[in-house]
Each structure stands twice: as C-alpha cells, then as structure tokens.
Amino acid sequence: MNLYTRTGDKGKTSIIGARVDKDSQRVETYGTIDELNSFIGKAMTELDPAIFKDILEDLEAMQNELFDCGGDLANVMKERHYKMTDGPIEIMEKRIDVLMDEPPLLERFILPGGSPAAATLHIARTITRRAERQMVTLLKESEEGDVPLVVQRYLNRLSDYLFAAARVVNARLNVPDTEYVRSAKVFKDGGRSKKAKE
C-alpha cells in the first residue's frame, strides 16, 4: 500500500460522502482538531507517569475523543451516525472540578508557561479555542443538522480542562504560575468556579 495517492494534488480531498476543497471550512476545522491532538500527544511525552498517571489517562482518552470529533465533522452523508456523545463531556467536567481543587488559589490571569509540559498544555488550550471559533464559522455556513453540535460543546469544555491540567502540572512540579502583572483580581473564588473560564 502506498502512503501517497496523488488524488489531492489539485487541492481536493475526500471526506465521508463527498470531495471538497482542502481549504473548506469543514476541513479547516477538523484539521485544527488534528493539530490539537498532536500537541496533546507532545504534552504526554513531557509528563512523568509516576507523577501524572491520572492526567495521562485523561489525555489518552481525549486523543481518542478528538479522533471521533474529527471523524464526525468529516461525515456529510445523508444518513450518518455520530460517534461523539455528551458522555465524555460529563466525565471531563468532573475531572475539571477535581483538578481545580489541587493548585493554589487563583486571583489574577496567569501567563502561559511554567514547566515544559504545562507550556505545551497551554498551547493545546489555545489551539482548542481556535478550533472552537472555526466550529462557530462552520455552523454559520452549514445547514441545520449538518454539523454535530456536541463537538462544539466538547471543545469548549476541553479548553477548560487543559487550563486546569496545566495548573496542576506546575503545582505538582512546584513550579509557580506567573501572574499577568497588570491583571486585576478577576477570580472572586480563587478560580474554583466551573464558570471561571468561558
């Protein structure tokens, strides 16, 4: 089997049920999800299993879920069965609540960084936000029912998880988060609220 097919040499690609331009909004969105998945994989290589077993398990599950998200977005058949459900979102929310109770209380915005793994998780978080914005554009361009809305909900929650995980990584490694020096006190409850980030 050849890795290359030459079928995309003229700027078209196959999705499930159609051929589309490679720069279509749908391809752009699931391509960004693929980019996000790669950065999560990079973060995993930077995490010590002896310290971060729980987070590594979370991230591996999320990598599989992101594949599901991408596959669902690539499916434009008239009759389609989506893999993603709200189940992983509910699990993620419980994990966010657990993780947010671990690091020091947060009053101000923090700068992305700290340990290498936390910095990579922050990169993944910002890519998640980009994918979410692209989802909004895709939904505007698509007919109702053509895009699985659960993917947008999943991405929104994933960015929160990655923020929480980055803070926990720094905390367990005794690397302090660096506050944004001109930030007002924006977290009234120390960043514990489920709605601390939208």
TrEMBL record:
It comes from the Bacteria. Pathway: Cofactor biosynthesis; adenosylcobalamin biosynthesis; adenosylcobalamin from cob(II)yrinate a,c-diamide: step 2/7. Its EC number is 2.5.1.17. SUPFAM superfamilies: Cobalamin adenosyltransferase-like. One of its GO terms (biological process) is cobalamin biosynthetic process. Keywords: ATP-binding, Cobalamin biosynthesis, Nucleotide-binding, Transferase. Residues 3-169 form the Cobalamin adenosyltransferase-like domain. GO terms for molecular function: ATP binding; corrinoid adenosyltransferase activity. It is an enzyme of class 2 (transferase). InterPro entries: CblAdoTrfase-like (IPR016030), CblAdoTrfase-like_sf (IPR036451), PduO-typ (IPR029499). It holds the Pfam family Cob_adeno_trans. Signal peptide: none annotated. It catalyses: 2 cob(II)yrinate a,c diamide + reduced [electron-transfer flavoprotein] + 2 ATP = 2 adenosylcob(III)yrinate a,c-diamide + 2 triphosphate + oxidized [electron-transfer flavoprotein] + 3 H(+); 2 cob(II)alamin + reduced [electron-transfer flavoprotein] + 2 ATP = 2 adenosylcob(III)alamin + 2 triphosphate + oxidized [electron-transfer flavoprotein] + 3 H(+). Belongs to the Cob(I)alamin adenosyltransferase family. Homotrimer. This is Corrinoid adenosyltransferase.
